[in-house]
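A favour, since you know our structure tokens better than I do. Just paste the record in under my message, thanks.
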Amino acid sequence: MRSRAVAAVLLPAAAAVVLLVGGVSGRLEGAGWDVARWVVSCVALVVLLVGGAVGAVVARARPAVTPTVELSEESAPDLYRLVRDLAARLDVPAPSAIALTPDCDSWLEDRSHPSVRGGGHPSVRGGGRAAHEGGRAAESIRGGTAPVLVIGSPFLWWMRVAELRAVLAPVVASTGPSAHPDIAAARRFVRGLDAAAAIAATPGQGVVRRIALAPLGRISRVLLAACREHITQLERGVAAAASERAQAVDYGLRIVAQEQVGLAYAGWDRLLTRVALPAWRMGRWPSRLDAGVVSALTELSRRDRLADGFASRLGERPACDLLEEPGAVDEAASLLAARLFHGGPAAVGPDWSPVDWQAYPEEVVDRKWRTEAARLHRVLDRLEAPRTGGDRTGPTLARVMDHLAAETIALNGAPGPDDGRSDEERTDALAAGITAEAAREEAAAPVPVPVALGEGQEFMDGGAWGGDSLPVFPIQPPRTGRDLLADHVTAMVCCAAVDTAGAAPGLDWLDGPSLLVEGKRRNDLAGPVLSLVEDGDSGPLRSWLAEVGVRPEKPVRLV
């Protein structure tokens, strides 16, 4: 396809040369030939200028690069030694460097482009210090044009050393085909087209620049579409060759290790969605996500009655022992995960600070509950919810139950005033108010800053391949107004339990925030709350409150 594009650019110039030579030699004379010479020569000049400009941009554009935490050899000598030994056993070139990504995947990435080397991603150097303070630039990648090995950071903490070696064997085996000149040239060409198309599609450009870049974007997209099938077949061939070569190394163990890959992905997704996301939304980022995924997967295996099967492998050496300072690497990867999946600054500040797992219940869970409880009462204030009894003024759980229950709660022996609306109308009004209030707060919050991938590209852009923009991760199913209302009522119940019954906020590695009563996790609150929200039946919740010792008429502390 590249040769065809070059031929298409040179074809008008070749025709112009033929016409000019024919005129000089006296074979193509006359007014018609003169007009043809001028027209074809002008067209050839324009095509050459446009083709040369597109070629220059494709060659010079900075290709998209995955944001990673780069590991120097001083910070992970054992990991480098394992990868080099693996490359020697496979008889392929060793990767030029190793980097970590906060994802459950591993691949090779070409960073030989001059604009990429030395490029702007966090690094962990010999001292093992995470580069989250000040967003220090990464060190240059040493060692020729061999690709960089990118490893998913959850693999290092969950997998054992032998499992990691087996999983990395097919990836490292791909360095052999990657060194082939034709394959490397094809990949560079496609990545250059992708970067050039992204430059033309960059928003916020002036009218003149947009018009000037329109041909570049159009030509790049046409060539990308023409190359798509070819590059797909090429990558499949490379993967097949690498897989066949890797069968000679730990093939039996690789089959077993692949089960751990799927388990790690499930635990990682659950940890990000249920545990990390609430903290990110508060301007806090858990600083030990990779260590947390081990706890989450251990809990998952215990609940699925798989603990006995995992007990023996957990006694083996974990792959994170290949790092000099695992804690520093985990912190850098956790910050990168927060920036990629939520958006945020590269440096620590008053509104963007780390939180460890010991402080998570108090600083994230309790704050989340009280923030939602405060939002619930603000909406109740606007709706003029009925307040009954002398002790029910202010932010009390009894006030919320009065508003939602089909029958008026009379904890003090006196029924509350009737506002003339049905319980369905009161519930729907409250759910709509909470939805609107949450939307307003979200709109007023600072816009997440996406992490730049390459020249003219951002992490949340669809790029030249996809078309649609990528949604903010983690992707959550749509929630109704009553779902949000149930969450807020649950938060209010938890606040009342903490303030009046001596309960405490806790952390469930799979489900996120949880309530601890007498040191034990209570997971039976969802049913009573749903009965109140959906059916207006407060009986199950009142029984639950009596069992725990919660006094709903007492005011709670809000944010």
Q: What stands out?
A: Confidence is low (pLDDT under 50) at residues 126-144, 385-392, 408-417, 453-474. The first helix runs from residue 2 to 25. The CA atoms of residues 500 and 551 lie 6 Å apart. The chain is about 55% helix and 10% strand.
